[in-house]
Batch of 4 targets.
Target 1
Amino acid sequence: MAADWLGSLVSINCGPTLGVYQGEVSSVDQSSQTISLRQPFHNGIKCPVPEVTFSAIDIKELKILDIKNGNARNSSSVSTKVSSAPVAVPKGDPRSVEKVNSPQHCSKSYGERHLDVPGQPKGFRRRHNSWSSSSRGANQVTPKKNGVKNGQMKHRDDECFGDGMDDGLDTDFDFEGNLALFDKAAVFSEIDISERRNGARSRGTPQEQTPSRYRHDENILEAKPIVYRQITVPQPGAKEYCTDSGLVVPSISYELHKRLLTVAERHGLSLERRLEMTGVCASQMALTLLGGPNRFTPKNLHQRPTVALLCGPHVQGAQGISCGRHLSNHEVEVILFLPNFVKMLDSVTSELTLFNKTGGKQVSSIKDLPDTPVDLIINCLDCHENTFLMDQPWYRAAADWANQNRAPVLSLDPPVSGQGQAVEAKWSLSLCLPLPLAEGAGRVYLCDIGVPRQVFQEVGIKYHSPFGCKFVIPLHSA
């Protein structure tokens, strides 16, 4: 009787702990109540051992998948828990190993997805491939939908979700070995060949290399070589400066600077125009030094910056008063120091009249300047010609106050080196072209006051504007 089942394909369910085994019956021992399977599969995965033996007490359910002698027997009882017909189990139960091919299910069954498993019996594959609703016997019932709640299964189907694991995942990926397979020289050689075919230059020195990609602000047309010395003067000064873009800006002597402004005034660039341009450029720089848009917001009206403006009775002082007027119009608290003189220049008087209309504060004594540090000091005490002012008491007192105050100093149109500068500055703003300034001038900036190019040519200067899109640019010592 037991020998009749040898070679048959069976499915043994040993419960949720041990899982489901499938294979070909190799031996049945009725005395010891054991059954052995050769070429076994555990939960759809081939077992590493050639044969597995089961005891009757471990078997929860046994199904005959294929009978070797072709009899019409549906099942055989090995233990008291195995019935003569297949037991209907819930669809989501882990013990269910048969997948039904019906119009409501997928076109491939579980057995079809494992047809290519090496070493699997051909009869077992045929049985699963041909399993359908038409091949079920009369005693077989349709599994009921049980264990489904809100479209999700209560128990995970190990046969479905536990399949497809590759044993090769346990081995580490060999990065060095795979990297050695990449031949860089061959790849770059292919790139060079393709570039030559497309008419592009091969890789060479950085000067010869043509970029394959351009930024949105770059010109794809071949441009002329950049000339960094675009300004030449007949008598270069003692220093040379350069801009952020590398353009060379030479310094000029005060005599050439004075002659340039005289020619510009003869062509219509009057002193009043120069004062206005200088005041606008200086105030823009001062507003940036005070914090720019981060400080000048409607939320900071209660924290208005304070600027002390030290001016003398000369053109440089008039430039400072013009700067103070623009700063006061931009909600800056300006304190203007200007000593009392019986007679002043007309430019100083007119600028002072406009400044007083802004609500700024004017003082003539050092005692009226604030004792606490201010946000910025603008120094316009020095003059290019009247050096005797340095011996005046008001000049020395103003210079001492500026040096004792811990606020940074911006010098406006400072004199050349050698004339002396009592106030040490952190920044200096030169006009048109820089003068050779002393080391105490700090970092040098240059502003554009609107002198035309032909005016430069009349005094012997070959000029190309270094300002670009700005009116105030920083200069660096070359």
Note: Residues 70-151 have pLDDT under 50 and may be disordered.
Target 2
Amino acid sequence: MADRGGIKRKALSVTDKLNILKMYDEKSVNKNQKEIAKEMDLPVSTLRTILANKSKIESSAMTGSCKRQKIKHGKFDELEHILLEWFNQARTLNLPVNGNIVTEKAHEIAKRLNIDEFSGSGGWIDRFKKRHGIVYRQICGEAESVNDADIAAWSENILPNILKEYSSNDIFNADEFGLFFKLMPDKSLVFKREKCHGGKLSKERLSVLACTNATGSQKLRLLVIGKSKAPRCFKNVRIFPCDYVSQNRAWMTGDIFINWIKPLDLSFKKQNRNILLFVDNCPAHPTNIPLENIKLVFLPPNATAKLQPLDQGIIKVLKQKYRKKLVLRYLKEMESKNPAKKLDVLDALHYVSAAWDEITADVIKNCFRKAKFVEGDYSAVEKSCEDFQELEEFPGYAEIDEDVATSNIRSIDQIITDKIAPADVTSIDEESEDEEEDDTTPILPVVNALDYVNELRRLVASFDDADESLNHLNKIENFLYSKNIKNMKQRKIDDFLK
């Protein structure tokens, strides 16, 4: 069929339309729509239709296949929207899903929404799959199940359009990872490939939320989620190196995520900054959080292994640095004559925060480049992930917990409830049994600590290039002296009152 201008109409896929939108943005500065349509060999009416449906096209590309030629909506649009969200979170967690399971969930949603005329026939399930680009593949790891065409469409068309109004300093990525925080290198085989959805091993695990901007100039404080609400090792501790909350399985939940992102949004509002924050389609990330200065962008489902900057090496390097500290502790304990102190949650908070602080801006920039957020070479990512000689004696130790679950799948009822009302901040799930650490090391008296500082100074002074470390020790000594004087004054006042 020909248009009025005599140009043949073409069946355009979602990818084609994304390319047209990109070309239009580049050419519209100097040319009008008729001139651009002529260059693209398109009817003007087609170009105008594509421009009018820009947001729908981009949304469709992010949630389904880019090979489709039409963006169709089914008869039961609300039902399909809820079902697709459930399906995407199942894919994110690599849960096996087939046509029968999808149909069963569709009937469950129809019943919940009081849709009596829904039949869930074989024809409907086929059309649903086609509309949303769903193909059942064998589960063999997230990276292998990603559609390369969808990856290319995201990286070349959708992502540049999202990023164009933001500077690199205002582009952030946040992601959770699981951490077997107590795991020493001699126990690695027990935990190998453990997904840890619950049970005894959950006591050995923490979930950690990391967030950074694209330049590496702003690494936010880590959020650590543990099982115990008040471990004994926290007694008398007033300052923590990172934020800590508890959840009965040490999982990220929607409430915890909201409690994390709302104060962050307020902080950026005070700074008068508009932020772009990319997160994955994890079930614990609500899609409708009311935010003012943070634009929350969800990465395409089941594609974070290739599209998320933190997954391109940042988390890997963080874990390597953490495990290096455990290896050094392990080797020290082997040489020490004193009985080894068990690693506790507080130790883990200090170690993981120190590891996060040690990650350089170059590593972060390279990982954002590898995820196509920034143009340029990213070869340094591989180099930064390999430079850990201390871990060579323990192969596989650094990656031992890469498949650990950090959240649970949301039920159909939870998804429907979230669709009805915007997500709001509620109390964090703290049904923890408050299982505390078995032993607690008492805090060293200030007077004894000053003696140790003096011994440390003598040791450090025996090495070359120790100026900076000696300065740090002097600062620590001055700090401890000020606390000791304050305690002495308080004791004198107490004695006088007695």
Note: Confidence is low (pLDDT under 50) at residues 1-7, 138-144, 188-202, 423-438.
Target 3
Amino acid sequence: MVLSCVNNPCEKPAMALGKIDLDKPLWDLSTFLGRWRHFAWVTDFRTCVVSEQQFINAKQLCEQYRVGREPPGTTREQIVYAKKLYESAFHPDTGELQNVFGRMSFQVPGGMAITGAMLQFYRTTTAVVFWQWVNQSFNALVNYTNRNANSPVSTSQLGTAYVSATVAAMLTAIGCKTFWQNRANPLMARYVPFAAVAAANCANIPLMRQNEIINGIDVSDENGNRLTKSKIAAVKGISQVTLSRIVMCAPGMLILPPIMQKLETYAWMQRIKPLHGPMQIMMVGCFLTFMVPTACALFPQNCAIAVSTLKRWEPENYEELRKNCEDGTLPAVLYFNKGL
């Protein structure tokens, strides 16, 4: 099977000088550094406090700029900022304004609060269950908000995904807590939240996007023309997103436990126990500020699948591709949005 992650040609950076191409990124997304800079820019948590009207105005300015009708005196910096607001808050498939709590730009404030709480309140089963439920509720919202909107999900499927992920997280958390309680170093108990989060992500994301796996996702040529569907592309995209989400939370949830374990042995830390939670939340925030763009940049946003793969493993979709290529010339690769 031949799968690749080469970027769509439309992912090449916009012109450095002259008119900005709003449909192209400002950085070269064929490199990890270019993707990191792009996602650090578009997931900037400061955009979470921007008013809804400002986002609407930004979208309107982008639309005006595309047809050369922007207000007189509009600067390049204003266009770039409008592009930033648009890409950080509007869904790339539907163009709809996303719920602020489900945007990737909310991953730092939302993730730091919930992850910090999970790391702090891990000693009792009740606390573990409660914070895993809160975390999976947040994850379900993020996954739904950043879904591939070309593959709609029914209410029952959403409910199944949410319940399954929550149950997976709780069972993993309780199971690990019970197993490690009397068999391992007390430090291991601090890793229960990470084990639960990893297990839940492996259930939540595929179930939330199950329609893509069942029916396939749209794949297009280099010009964005939709030519057919592919289930293999869906599996690849979902797998990459799942791994990215685990990587996103891993440093904070793996490095902080031994740090806190050591700090709590000092007398001065014992005198400020009420501040342990806020301290962990702030430290998780520092990790996430770096890890959110890092995780998003691990794989190209627009991945590619070889047409030869469709021919071998998805003959029915390959036949649809042939019918849609009226001139008989088939592209070597097709592109798809993996989602976030």
Note: Residues 43 and 105 are 4 Å apart (CA to CA).
Target 4
Amino acid sequence: MRPSYIISLLSVITLLLIGPGCGKRYAPNWDSLDARPLPQWFDEAKVGIFVHWGVFSVPGFGQYSEWFWYWWQSAKRAEFVEFMQKNYPPGFKYADFATEFHAEFFNPDTWAKIFKASGARYVVFTSKHHEGFTNWPSAGSWNWNSVDVGPHRDLVGELAAAVRKQSLHLGLYHSLYEWYHPLFLMDQASRFKTQYFVVRKTLPELVDLVMAYKPDLIWSDGDWAAPDTYWNSTQFLSWLYNDSPVKDVVVTNDRWGNGCYCKHGGYYNCVDRYTPGKLPDHKWEKCQSIDTRSWGYRRDMKLSELLDLPSIIKDMVNVVAMGGNYLLNIGPMSDGMIAPVFEERLRGLGAWLGINGEAIYASKPWRIQTENSTVQVWYTAKNSTVYAILLGWPPKQLLKLTTPKTSGATKWAPVTQTSGLMILIPAMPVSPGNAWTLKLEGVA
């Protein structure tokens, strides 16, 4: 097992002070950190895949199955208590699920190829969820990690290598807090006046992840119980941006303490499934799950509870037209298989992007984001080109666009005839995604 890279808060501060660094330095305060430009690759990527996988994948039950332990032990939700009483013997502990987390069919190269086929440009993988089980050999999580128990494999390391083989960016999800860690409960009892958990667990593991796997993105979560001053978030981010091995490329989100959402950090997640009503003035990302009732895998999921391909594409197009990135989640099974229905959705998305991706990747919001004169249309732009993405087929193949202003230089593709802003669209094959793109050049 690798040594932990830091063992105390003092070590973190030392790294901040002695790191070599170059160019602009970012101080450990939000005014300085928030002024850091977002690395360009993230805005250009537009589409990512979110992967929730852990011990919670073993019971794989109920709404928001990744919260299974909490629903069962703390909230004592009736359906979870009944599930355990019916299916497991008295005295069965949540930790016992870890021995059943075998990941025997986990093939990281197969996963990475599916993610590549989806058209995604980055992958965000769960390194540790709120249950505290780490999918890498964390020195701070003895016998509660994927090498010591369960798969006996470094799941983060294996997937990181496979993802990079496919030329995809690697992101790591990391929960700052853990429901039942004794040190966190001790800090919580002190109303977060002590920082035993942060010093001995959270910060060492974050630095370990950065040093060992060099992620391009850190997707922080589990921060809401305490302010950023408890988590020492600004100190960590200052080191990350100034002196870490990923300082020039790393992207972070906004979940660094209670009150940080939609206010501080790199790009904004705000809340799960965030959907702004108007064009934001800050880069943002929407995380969405194919299974509308859970981020983790559910053995009891129903087809009617899953997003179909047209819904996914409609959601993604809306997000991109509004300047956001789209992070689409799947929950693999505990044995390491991706459910065929999830794979089908991902490959369907990739097929659509293979044809229409020019309107998505590296695009920018246009002066008007949407209109609904004939069918709903979302606009994106790239340089002097405008893309009109139709979410539905116009009646009699006649489309009216009221927003673009034409000139003698206006060109339309794949349009055969135009009459002002009335466009006669040629007959085209049915699209499984129920969305088509018009490329407009010379419009204002």
Note: The chain is about 30% helix and 15% strand.
